[in-house]
Write a structure and sequence with these properties.
MetI-like; transmembrane; about 220 residues; cell membrane; mainly alpha; MetI-like fold; elongated; single chain
Amino acid sequence: MPFDVTILAPHVPFLLKGALLTAEACALALVGSLIIGLLVAALRTSSSPLLSRAAFVYVDLFRNIPFIVQLFFFFYGLPEIGIYVDAFTTGVIALSIAGGAFSSDVIRSGILAIDTGIIEAAEVSGLSKPVIFRKIVMPIALRTSIRPLGSVFINLVLTSSILSTITLNELTGSAKIVASDTFRPFEVYAVLLIAYASLTYLVSLAIGVLHRRLNRDRMPEVA
């Protein structure tokens, strides 16, 4: 049977709707994972053994459990104890929590890489620890961590394809439906390959632009 992508023309609006749903879920999850990553990284570098240990347990737990198991727990498990959340919200929350565990490790590495002389100088200037962390430590850590964070975010976009397993008709879920309707899985999944490659390329491009903006004063070092 010859390759004929034109057979998918009637299904383009449906596939685009799935692509927009994927983009929306990923955008929200990227923000959520970054916020969680910042908070957890702050706790892991805290002087409090209790907070640091709690943050470590969270990271260790969610980095070592398959994402699909986490997703099924939130979507199928929580209703058993009376917690009901729709598929889209569940997907965003699950992606944020899983991504936050990986993001926190990257941001923590950025924090630990900061020259202690900078922090000591800020302390001598009379700045409080919360102000130093918020105004000095976090901006520097994010600036140095933006590229590795990009890899985390790209992986998050790819992982979002698993959301189709909880009845969410995002890009992969929509493609599965079209493939079963048209009996042309080769064309459908070829388009899906291109779609995900395009999404990850856009994320990579955005990270590159952001990296250059944040490091424009020291580009010869980081280029």
